[in-house]
Amino acid sequence: MMIFLALFTLIIDILLIIDGSKHNIKWERNLGIILFGILIFSNILDFIGF
To answer: Is the separation of the CB atoms in 12 and 25 below 8 Å?
Structure first.
C-alpha cells in the first residue's frame, strides 16, 4: 500500500515539476521539488527504520 502511495506522489511531483517548468510557474515547480524532497526523506527514514 505504501509503495503505491509513494509511486502516486512521485508521479504527481514529476508532473508538477514538468508543468511548472513548461509554464514557468515558480510556485508550482517549487512545490513539486519540496514534495519530492519530503517523499525521499520519508522513504530514507522508513528504510532506516524510524
So the answer is: no
Give the separation between CA 35 and CA 9, rounded to whole angstroms: 8
Structure confidence by residue, pLDDT tens digits, 21-34: 676 667 767 777 78
> What's the confidence (pLDDT) of residue 20?
63
Instruction: Return the domain boundaries, the chain.
Output: 2-48
The Cα–Cα gap between 21 and 17 comes to 6
Where do the DSSP E strands lie in 3-49? none
| Spatial distance between the Cα atoms of 50 and 45, rounded to a whole number of angstroms | 6
Tens digit of each residue's pLDDT (9 = 90 or more) over 31-46? 777 888 888 888 877 8
**6 near 39, Cβ under 8 Å?**
yes
